[in-house]
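Subgroup meeting minutes
Present: P.N., E.W., G.H.
Scribe: E.W.

1. P.N. recapped why we're keeping a running log of single-chain structure predictions: easier to compare across weeks, and new members can see raw inputs and outputs side by side.
2. G.H. added today's entry (345 aa).
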Amino acid sequence: MIEIHILHLILGIILFFIINWIGRHSYSVGYMQISMFLKVEEAPAFNFLFRIISPIVYLFIVSAVLYKIGLDKYVTNAYFISIYYVIFRLGFNLITNRGLLMNWYRQILYWISIISISYFAYTEIIYKKENILPDFETVSNELWIIILIFLFHTLNQIRISSDKTIKRKENYLENRFKHFKNKYDGIISEQVKNEKLKSIIYGLIIYEDFNRPKAARIVENVSFKLTKKKHSLGLMQVQTENYINDLESVKLGIEKVKNAYQKALKKKKLDDLKQEDFNSHRGYHYEWELQHSILKDYNPDGSYIYEVSQLSDDIFEKFYNEPKDYLTPFYKGEKYSYDEIHEEE
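Output recorded in log:
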């Protein structure tokens, strides 16, 4: 029996990665992942069905393959594949600090539905080898399929309020900012005085930690020690040929950001400008360009720059009091509308 459970565990973990891979390629049809930046939940019907039905479909396919190759005994209690999948997903989200971003009521509903339907599918269909393939001979079955497709399309047009989602993301950001501020503020404040530059550094730290949580960084460290090849390591994912820990990566990341900032200032020749040069909307453009240059130097990917910019702006507005210390000398943070900018031009 132990080998059956081991196989079911492996299949459950494979299911986790398959669903994540499909999800990343399903934005066009409405799939929603846990994210710090998504503010509106679209296609709720698709999300609900995808998260619940996909493990059931997987269960049918795996069981059919096992029956086909003569490994009938491994189909015994196959619903455990879904149980292991749910447990692994829960553990992954907790280990990677995504708990504050999760809608726990909805997740519990997903998990209960997945396990319940999997158990029903196993006991009523999969358990009996001859019944694993569906029977569509009757007209009523086809009619019900048409009705379900219609209901799915209708429900998928519903848009769910984003208030609670936004609140969870705000709580997550506050939690992670306080955590990293308590841990690294001494190092950051010692090397960086500009508050906007600090917010960019914290934005990079939180973003990289979200996408490369501690568990993933441990795997990267092991991979580096085995291959000895250049890797992005540590909390701030700094490219290095030598092993570095999280603290060392933060120090190197701060230095990289500072150098990019100084390089951008020299390129724009801002040191030669005077306060009156920023009495128009040009200050806003300079500010945006400086932040863009710093982040582009860190990672040239367009979506990376956009998302870290949004995160850094949120941190700057939420956690730094007036008067704010901007990247651009003399700039006081006046905002101009698109029309106002083009009227002056």
